[in-house]
Structures are given as structure tokens and as C-alpha cells.
């Protein structure tokens, strides 16, 4: 079984494209999915809240070309797979948040690992960022493993709006 899973990883090629104002339906498909959001908000996001969050995402995407929120696209069929995040708070920020959400039908195919690696490689080409961080649910062991395998270290456990979180960090400088 493990061998077959490894073959699937090689077969799936992805590309990252920034979300645009026309992509709300894709974003909503992701954040309205209970399984996707279980380890993030512990609930599916309703449409009004999703619209507010999406508008903030679009504004953040305008800060700098190589940073923001990206659609993960499976290249063979041009299918939407999920969201990749390399987010800064302002254009001169020296730290960025790395994150990803993947639709359940793509779980276990190595996509989050590919995305994490691609985002780290992207940010290493920038001189601006000194530190990457990721916030995960401590119970999300697959995500934790991906981050640790990419050089992240656990820094602290903290509550985020009443939900448990673990902050992992990768120092680049």
C-alpha cells in the first residue's frame, strides 16, 4: 500500500496561482468543508464570514507579488486542490506565515508536503524574510510531520480564539 501512495505523489503535479476576486466559489468550497476546517476552526465557515475573510485575503494578495494566498491547482486536469498561504502583514515584514488547506479527495497524496517545500523554496529566494511560522492544531500530526521534515521547530502552544494551536518556526537567517 505504501508503494502505491508513493507512486501517486509522483503523478500529481501542482502549480500555485494567486487567488483573484473571481475565485470566491473555490475558496468557499474549501472553507465551507467541515473535514477541511476540522483542524483549523473546528467548524465549516458560513458564506458571510467566508466573504469577509476572502476580501481580506484579496487585499493581502496585493501587498507583494510572491506573497499571499494561492490556489493549489492539479496541472493534469487543471482542478482546484486547495489553498497555499505565504502571508505577510505588510510589504516590509520580515516574517511570513506558511499554511495550506487541501480538499479531502486529495489527502494522503503528498500535496501538502509539495506545497510546503515549494513555499519554503520561494521565500528563500527573497532576502526580506528572516522567519517563517506556521500555526497548526496540535492534533494535526500529518501537518506537523510535514513542517518538521522541512526544518520547522515547535516554539509554543497557545490558544487562538479558544482553539488549541501550536506555533512552529523556521529561521531563515
UniProtKB/TrEMBL annotation:
GO molecular function terms here? Answer: acyltransferase activity, transferring groups other than amino-acyl groups
Enumerate the spans annotated as N-acetyltransferase domain: 14-173
Does ATP-binding count among this protein's keywords?
no
Tell me the InterPro entries matching this sequence: Acyl_CoA_acyltransferase (IPR016181), GNAT_dom (IPR000182), N-acetyltransferase (IPR051531)
What keywords is this UniProt entry annotated with? Transferase
Name under which the protein is recorded: GCN5-linked N-acetyltransferase
At the top level, the lineage of the source is Bacteria
Q: Which residues form a coiled coil?
A: none
Amino acid at each position: 500500500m505504501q508503494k502505491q501512495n508513493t507512486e501517486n505523489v509522483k503523478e500529481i503535479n501542482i502549480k500555485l496561482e494567486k487567488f483573484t476576486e473571481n475565485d470566491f466559489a473555490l475558496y468557499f468550497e474549501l472553507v465551507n468543508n467541515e473535514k477541511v476546517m476540522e483542524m483549523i476552526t473546528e467548524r465549516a465557515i458560513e458564506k458571510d464570514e467566508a466573504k469577509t475573510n476572502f476580501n481580506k485575503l484579496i487585499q493581502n494578495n496585493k501587498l507583494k507579488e510572491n506573497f499571499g494566498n494561492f490556489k493549489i491547482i492539479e496541472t493534469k486536469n487543471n482542478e482546484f486542490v486547495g489553498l497555499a498561504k505565504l502571508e505577510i502583514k505588510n510589504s516590509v515584514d520580515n516574517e511570513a506565515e506558511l499554511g495550506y488547506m487541501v480538499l479531502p479527495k486529495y489527502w494522503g497524496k503528498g500535496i501538502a508536503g509539495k506545497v510546503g517545500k515549494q513555499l519554503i523554496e520561494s521565500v528563500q529566494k527573497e532576502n526580506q524574510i528572516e522567519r517563517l511560522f506556521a500555526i497548526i492544531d496540535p492534533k494535526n500530526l500529518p501537518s506537523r510531520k510535514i513542517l518538521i521534515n522541512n526544518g520547522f521547530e515547535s516554539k509554543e502552544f497557545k490558544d487562538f480564539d479558544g482553539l488549541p494551536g501550536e506555533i512552529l518556526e523556521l529561521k531563515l537567517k
